[in-house]
Amino acid sequence: MIYLVRHGQTSFNLERRHQGHVDSALTERGRDQARRAGITLAALLDPLNTVVFSSPLGRAFQTARIVAAVTAVERPIVVDPDLMEIGMGSCEGITEAELAKRWPESGIPLTGDGMSFQSPDGESLEALAERLSRALRRVGDHGAASRIIVSHGISSRVMRALYLGLNPTAAVGLDAPQDALFRLNGGQITRIFF
User: Which SS3 state, helix, strand or coil, does residue 150 take?
Assistant: First the structure.
């Protein structure tokens, strides 16, 4: 059983800035979201037979530490660079409005609703999907009964698409809530609100 958790709200989320590989701190709300995810997970799993996997980016790792503490998972958190968010190149740290000013001719949006996730000089969706596929295989091969993955908004969308056997481009139609987690089991995905 795999549980997929997006990091809690960050200051960049509040400012609607693209994060990519740059980091911003969890807000108090983000820390609360991580605690609530942990409380929800604690009711669903055996902490002695659970392992937490995390992106190395601070916002995800901080969320993973909170989740691990609340669920009483004692195994060390497995940090996996393949779980990082999509690299957004020179779009990292800027808002959509700033993006439009810098590249008025590009017309490359960075949000969902049928649009692209790629930035003009960032990581390709195909490269992201390739590394997330590797991470999902490693997580899936782990012997623990329950595996928790703490990752990011776009990464979460792409992992869910990959898990369902969909083309990674299908991920643009998925959401990435910070007040829910996803259970991946038996080829199906279940949203669990907290």
Answer: strand
Catalytic-residue membership of 152:
no
Number of structural domains in the chain: 1
For residue 150, what are the domain limits? 2-193
Q: Which among 85, 92, 123, 152 is annotated as catalytic?
A: 85
- Is 126 an annotated catalytic residue? no
- Block residue for tokens 């930035």: 119
69-107 pLDDT per residue, tens: 999 999 999 999 999 999 999 889 998 788 778 777 655
pTM: 0.93
The single residue of 7, 18, 92, 152 carrying the catalytic annotation is 7
C-alpha distances in angstroms, 153 versus 60, 74, 115, 150, 178?
A: 10, 26, 15, 10, 9
Instruction: Give the DSSP H/E element, type plus range, for residue 107.
Output: none
Report the CATH number at residue 114.
Answer: 3.40.50.1240
